[in-house]
Design goal:
The structure is a homodimer.
Chain A lengths: L8 H5 L23 E3 L7 H13 L6 E5 L9 E5 L5 E5 L2 H17 L8 E4 L5 E5 L29 H13 L3 E3 L12 H14 L5 E6 L3 H4 L11 H17 L5 E4 L16 H12 L5 E5 L10 H9 L10 E6 L22 E7 L15 H8 L10 H6 L9 E5 L15 H12 L5 H12 L4 H22 L32 H5 L5 E2 L18 H6 L9 H4 L2 E2 L10 H24 L7 H33 L14 H6 L17
Parallel strand pairs in A: 1-2, 2-4, 6-7, 6-13, 7-8, 8-9, 9-10, 10-11, 11-12, 12-13
Antiparallel strand pairs in A: 3-4, 3-5, 14-15
Chain lengths: 685, 685
């Protein structure tokens, strides 16, 4: 079969023109004359189909015409096929108009990355997860919790009257990577979010998102019936409470007929919940689910729970939720963070994946880099997400992906969520390179079988340059970036040794004094002492390893078989313990922190060679970030090694470079930011 | 307690004086006036005690006198104690004269490395393994199989009349590190070794070794009764055969009353054995054991067996020997190589360790660097040996060390062997740095609990300089050297992809043509194809993983839990398989080979900084070796990556340096050496 390269000229034409990053990966050149696009007779012209037509007319560069057809026997579940006919027509087929829109973006992606289709050849594609959702931790006041790209894109003050053009650009970007849902507000939800006023504003946004196939969801405060409804209780078994929710949900659906449902953070970090009334998570979730069911709405109930009284925070979600397995309604999905603690640089997967056999479970990833250098460090998270999704749970031989894609009932839907890294900065994500995580999250929800390398390639080619001189080196930078960050931040299973509150930079010593919860202190996690380092989660310790299915339980629970990337997660390891390369824990710790520094410096050097391929604005912006990342890596290395050295009492190996900083200086340094602002590019210890 | 630093001046005085390396780690300055040494009344003045006295008179620099005493209630099994009295006397006590000699070397070692003993303080020490044996693969013609330091030190032609002074220097060096046995000849033994003429020569060597507490052993050819005795058979159950052995053993013990026993390689690589007569290894070993028993001699019977017909060479020792467990006499020890194949850069431990519950098993290490850069590359093997000895077998919770130290009967002795790296070159081992492996082997047999770092420190301080400016960097070079060599030679469990026959340099493509055994070809081990790389030893493959005790059997047999250092040992892994750092096998392979190159270059750079601490002769000799090692690492990298690339079809990652060599040039290159000569320092591809 003769292969024809689809045109890739668009991105080359735009090369080196000054860019602000606002176009994300959608940098096709607009056609001077519209491409020929035909909607087959019988295919209904919905708003969604119209968008597909417009996108192709504007950006398709192929010789032949494009034909769109909705066919009952076409790919279902918003899947699509793209075929190239003998007459050089590209035929896009789906069972739904939404599928045609995905097909249009699929065809344009092929064009931009240089994928080819032979005459007579057809490719098909369909999404894996039913619901592919972004969680915005945006507050009504415009701040974003863990947002590092400015303020919220939602202009609540101007809504519903004024609708920012960015909403549609947001919807388009999401649709182009297959995202089909958005929770607009923070999981730490204000009752206010359900006020009639706010719902009208929400409806205005939903109207913009709808044609792009994106459903709107809201986080709700479980105490809303009290705080907003004036009821004396929010007890989920109280009839008045239930009735209040019925009324509120009716109101929502009158405004937003395709409203998706609620996301709930309950009885977690001070948020109200059913346990306040002696009820279980299932009681709370099911009440809301029953209210939403007539409207086909769902409840996403978060399993992110931990109490200061628990001996091990990492164990608690499993302890609280496993007894409730099978007690949730079909339209409840338990939303589980990828790891047992909290979006750390590297965690083993949550033991709830695969273990809950009778409850629909959805993974929650964090696209925003709360713990991974915010909008300064380049850390391509697809590598980490792949690690989690492809992890074998050993429950019925299911990977995490398989366990969460499996539907526990005929009524269930599969779902996956990511906490967005989007703000009102001109390039959406603060760092141009962080757009890769938004992109990869969407694509991975669509197809978890894509490799991190494929995801990197697609992103780099569309967003920067398809030149192999650029893609080759930068692909490797992205692929190595996660391991690098883990190496200079928290290698070998170390976790949560961040600066207090804002989580930028190292503070393994952090202790603000007073009655702070122990499980908010780094020392709770690293447990450094004169003997060694790490959290003992063996049988002799917290028992966390036993929450995994065999053989993982044995594997993790035994120091001699525990994978070294989780060594200090599961074990308190003596400083002189000899690891698999024959070196001690202490020596290896010194070397791996330095390895991380070397990697970060390497990235900065590689980027310097990318100048010919990137416009000046984005080149300089990113250069400053790579340079800063390399300096931060040194900060991390010095802080952690000098701090832990107080416990190990051991010298740095003679061939490790001497620290740049003094521990006492680092301990005095405090970055003056809160949980809603990004670390600046100017300040450094 | 006041601590007094024992004098460390000796090694400083000699610093930078031209040295030829012949003094090994025994570089104490001889006293102008003998130190005061007193042998307590009642302690018998044996030749061994006399040596202890002489060594202390010549080299002890302490203020007070040294007292030697054999006491019935002193430390047994050649152990000793060293005490410092109020009167500033050092009192050396043991239950044996041999223990006093070890005590003398122990005291001198403390002096040289700067260890201190307080007034009134006593330290005790005792050997772990009963028998600590060097195996010389030396042939009667003076060649050494896998010898890289010249020819054999045994001058058979001159013996028994002329006894080289090197024999005593050899004995002294061994005694100083606790070695107490030597098998003088190659396991591929000539029948000639047992001729009356050769036995008289052997006895002359034994006479020199004896006062140093070193017993003499011989390798025997199982067909000796035929070849030497003229019998029609060597069937171990034949009465005449047995009688021949009785006569021969009587002859030996008349000449060498403390003769240690036999080492036997039978039915392996073409050597004769009991299977030639339909008998088992046990039949053969027991016959010899019965003959030796009246003289208290032992049989060390090697388990290094594999047939070309076996589907997996790595499985065969276990398959042949496990059914014989418990069938051996008490004075038989089955000698098992550390890994299932053959002294490769990195292997999992042999599954026979711990599995044979009713047979005494002894580990066999290779001190000579057949597969690890011969006498050119610096590879400190203590790190590898520690890895093996401390590996958990999961049989009754025993490590490899515990399993081989445990005595299966009251008559059993524990033993450990190392194939010597000693030849007639002026510095004994060809490479000055390779002396470290001889040193560490002895010390580790004495005390397997010593860390690789301790062993490195002791060696470096005594052999080169006790200055921390030297010891600090070089300690790290030694400790990192094994991992480095594995990285640039055979990472991730690759094995046996060496050049044919001589095993220096890479030849993953090696195939001399003709009827060569498949299991002598690299392709038998690496199994590279378009799918991936590595030997499938899972249940679907050869089943080798199942020879390990649970949980190792499951751990190794599952690609997802297999430790990555053994990945390609147990699995045929797809090129695109994503490893734990998020990168594919192919990318990781490219990076780790380059990591190995970087390490080797780093070692060369560190050595350049050592010039102030080392005499010119040894500095330059070692510099040439480190430089060559770095070049060889590039050779390895290019050969392996370019060769495997033919199968993977994948490009090198963009940030990997381009190859220096061309594959076709490397494939044309042949090093003109045999199994008895070392690679020269001048030739390179």
């Amino acid at each position: 079969m003769r292969l024809v390269v689809l045109l890739v000229c668009a991105c080359f034409v735009s090369l080196l023109r000054a860019e602000d990053g606002s176009r994300l990966w959608l940098r096709m050149e607009r056609n001077a004359d519209a491409a020929e696009v035909r909607v087959e007779r019988g295919t209904k012209r919905t708003a969604t189909v119209d968008i597909a037509v417009r996108e192709l007319e504007d950006y398709w560069k192929g010789d032949g015409k494009v034909v769109l057809r909705v066919a009952e026997d076409g790919p279902a579940r918003d899947g699509f096929s793209i075929g190239r006919t003998e007459k050089e027509e590209m035929v896009l087929t789906s069972a739904s108009g939404q599928g045609l829109l995905y097909a249009a973006y699929g065809l344009l992606r092929m064009q931009q990355v240089g994928d080819t289709l032979g005459v007579g050849q057809t490719v098909s594609d369909a999404p894996a997860y039913d619901l592919r959702i972004l969680n915005h931790w945006d507050n009504p006041d415009g701040t974003i919790e863990r947002g590092y790209a400015g303020r919220s894109i939602w202009q609540w003050d101007e809504l519903p009257g004024t609708v920012s053009p960015r909403y549609e650009a947001y919807a388009r970007a999401n649709a182009s990577v297959g995202i089909n849902g958005a929770v607009l507000n923070n999981v730490n939800a204000k009752p206010l979010a359900l006020s009639s006023d706010m719902l009208r504003k929400t409806a205005a946004i939903a109207d913009v998102l709808r044609p792009y196939g994106i459903r709107t969801y809201l986080s709700v405060n479980f105490a809303s019936p009290k705080a907003l409804g004036g009821l004396p209780t929010a007890d989920p078994l109280d009839a008045d409470v239930r009735q209040w929710w019925v009324g509120k949900v009716d109101e929502i659906y009158r405004l937003i007929p395709d409203f998706g449902g609620f996301l709930v953070k309950a009885n977690s970090e001070g948020e109200p919940g059913p346990q306040d009334y002696g009820r279980t998570h299932a009681d709370g979730a099911n009440m809301l689910a029953d209210v939403l069911a007539p409207h086909k709405g769902i409840v996403m109930w978060r399993a992110f729970v931990y109490k200061p009284s628990s001996p091990d925070r990492a164990c608690q979600a499993y302890e609280e939720f496993m007894p409730l397995d099978g007690k949730f309604r079909d339209n409840v999905i338990v939303q589980v963070k990828n790891g047992p603690v909290d979006f750390q640089p590297r965690e083993p997967f949550s033991p709830l994946f695969g273990a809950m056999r009778h409850t629909q479970v959805m993974p929650e990833f964090q696209v925003t880099q709360e713990y991974l250098g915010q909008s300064i460090h380049t850390v391509f998270l697809a590598t980490m997400w792949k690690d989690v999704l492809s992890a074998q749970t050993y429950h019925d031989g299911e990977t995490v992906a398989a366990a969460t894609l499996r539907k526990v009932s005929a009524q269930s839907v599969s779902a996956i969520a990511g906490v967005a890294n989007i703000g009102d900065s001109e390039n959406w994500t603060g760092s141009d390179m962080a757009q890769a995580n938004w992109y990869a999250f969407g694509r991975l929800c669509w197809n978890p079988d894509m490799s991190a390398a494929q995801l990197a390639d697609e992103f780099l080619k569309q967003t920067f340059s398809a030149d192999e001189g650029f893609v080759g080196p930068m692909r490797q930078v992205l692929l190595r970036s996660w391991d690098a960050a883990v190496s200079y931040m928290m290698p070998y299973g170390l976790h949560h040794i961040f600066a207090g509150e804002h989580h930028y930079g190292p503070e393994p010593w952090y202790h603000p004094g007073g009655d702070i919860r122990l499980d908010w202190l780094p020392s709770y996690y690293h447990r450094a002492d004169s003997v060694g380092l790490g959290f003992d989660r063996t049988r002799e310790g917290s028992g966390g390893a036993a929450q995994y299915h065999e053989p993982l339980s044995t594997l993790y629970g035994d120091l001699r078989t525990c994978p070294e990337e989780y060594l200090l997660w599961f074990h308190h390891v003596p400083w002189s313990y000899v690891m698999r390369n024959g070196l001690t824990l202490w020596d290896n710790l010194c070397y791996i922190y330095n390895h991380g520094v070397d990697e970060a410096r390497h990235f900065a050097t590689v980027w310097e060679g990318m100048r010919p391929y990137v416009d000046a604005t984005r080149y300089e912006r990113q250069k400053a970030r790579f340079d800063r990342q390399a300096k931060d890596a040194v900060w991390w290395r010095d802080a952690c090694l000098l701090y832990f050295q107080q416990f190990s009492g051991l010298p740095l190996p003679a061939d490790c470079p001497p620290p740049v900083h003094k521990l006492k200086d680092l301990m005095k340094y405090h970055l003056d930011i809160d949980n809603y602002t990004a670390a600046g590019m100017d300040k450094l210890p």
